[in-house]
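Quality-control log, excerpt.
Job 1 of 2 completed; input and output follow.
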Amino acid sequence: MKIRIAVLLWISVLFLSACSMFFANNMRSGSSSSLVDYLYPGGEIPPPVENVLPEIKLPARVGLAFVPSAGFSQISDAEQTQLLTLVQQSFADRDFIEAIQVIPSTYLRGKGGFTQLEQVGRLYSVDIIALVSYDQVIRTADTTASLLYWTIVGAYVIKGSTNDITTFVDTAVFDLATRRMLFRAPGINESSGKATAVGLGQASRDMSTASFEAAIAQMNGNLHMELDKFRERVRQGESARLVNRDGSPRGGAGSADGLLLLLGLLGMFFIAHSRNK
């Protein structure tokens, strides 16, 4: 009888050790979309920027789109359209915007680059397009404390994990006629937290949302700085020239405020995104 118990205990130890080794491996997940890979799918070097100022026509016709993900995306096509529509509706009554078009992700499949963007621009009659890209990496690893907790609880196999999440967000705004990037604003967040296996999925989702929000908050701060720089460049006759839809010249820095406000409030999209995940 004692031998049988000893054998069972030994088998249990081997089982727990094997499970521990299985779960001890770090797990990495996440999703991303690359602006560079999309715009230059063949790895080509971007052409030199010509000394020609983009003519931004006001009221603006703007397209909003996600950079397509090369693999699994945490955001479904329906969610993308819904979130971009929130941005569209928020600018519906602005007099400096003639139209804001939500570009469905189905129109930006693969690595179509500027050729695809120009086709979409003609299809939707937009002159400017704001491309949203992101990269979030979630790493899950066992902790020493989790093994003790698991050993005490036994058969429930409840274990603790440390989640490390790194989130990057980026908004890049392009003039389609010249393929010039008007400006961009990045944001980054790194966070860490603990959870048990029972609540690991929900904990990861919650942390993912919080990390997106923190990255967006940083991006918004950077966006304000970039907007100030862009406004100053426009005032000095650099970066862009503002014209009316008929091609006639438009006023100076004051007339740029409408466009700048539009571009600056694109951060609202990311906040809506993180809260609706």
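Job 2 of 2 completed; input and output follow.
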Amino acid sequence: MQKLIALCIEDELKLSLLLGLTKKNDFIEKSFLSSSSSTTLSLLYQKRVKIETLSVNPQQVAYNILRTALKHENSTHFVVGVEFGVIAIVNLVVEEDLSEEELSQVQEELKVQLDQLKSKLLSQSTKNQSSLPKLNPNIKINFITNISPNMTSKPKTLDEVYAYLSDLKPHESVPLSYTLTPLAAISEPLENMIITPVNDKLLSQILTLLEHMDEGETILNEFQKKLNSFLDCVPNYVLDHVEKKTSELGPFETYLKDWLKNLVLQMRAGQTRDVFEELQSLFEEYYKGHFNRVFLKNFVNVFSDTSEKIDYIRKAQSHDVRYIGKSGTLAELKVVPEFYLFYGNWSKQDLVFLKNRALFNTLITDETVLCFIVDAEFHPEFSEKQSVEENQLYYCHKGVYKNVE
């Protein structure tokens, strides 16, 4: 849904694309980047180069094309004008898992960089020769254009993107839109199909529902990908619950979209009898069911302790902290004579957990002593073997554990 909004697709066409009534062309398809564990911000650039039109003589056109066109019952219009230009999409992608705070900072950074590119592209001044900012190494450019959708040598910097787009010649442009004239305008009246647009209020409600479905699916998929990226942190029961919910979501969304597709086709054909009541039933089934956006968000929040643990362990490991999780063994501790150890259980967080984790954070930066995290959820036996308690912080020297206060 967000990709269609970014591409400035008008609402009726957006509805058809989301329901599969209209197929996306190759250019649109390639614009739909996988969000996975990446952060992406996009700039849509459109440049109109020229318009070519025909001066239509009805009798001459009818003589030349009607004999063949009218043999095909699907023929309704002919082209009298073509608008040429270029459409390009510049995606700035950060292929990293980010916390909410980091995500906000990165999105702001990407927005500033794209705004500078946009400003320079829109500037008509030839004096604007200033260089665009260099991207951080973790930011990649994904560049797509309808002129060369399969281009092999793509721009790798913002300056290269600007140079490519600003140097395009008129003959390099491709059709962006067509002006059509009905065949009925130059021949005896044809039996044309009448298409009734979906009224604005219903169109808005349907698009909102589809947007909510898209957001709910994204919330669940992103969470599942986060779990799969660090399985050593994740209890099996969490994986099972999320896998079950994901496997149920797909068929439900297919069922709902097929139902919605049939209702939209009926409305466009002018067959509105009983459609509105059925549409309200569809809305109710989604919004009161177990697959709506709010329900899926709450479902993911049930496992917030696991999500928080993944974020914390990743950050700790960047400071050379060793984590003993689902696949780890306590034997690792025997070969280190001196270390700090946090024996934490993220599913049983209390004031003691928070206090000792905060204290552990201050010890992580001490490069003279190694730090360990033993996940109590996966290693409850450690408590009995060493007479230690969950959520406590210890200093170990030659196998002797002492509380750190």
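Post-run check on job 2. The first helix runs from residue 2 to 6.
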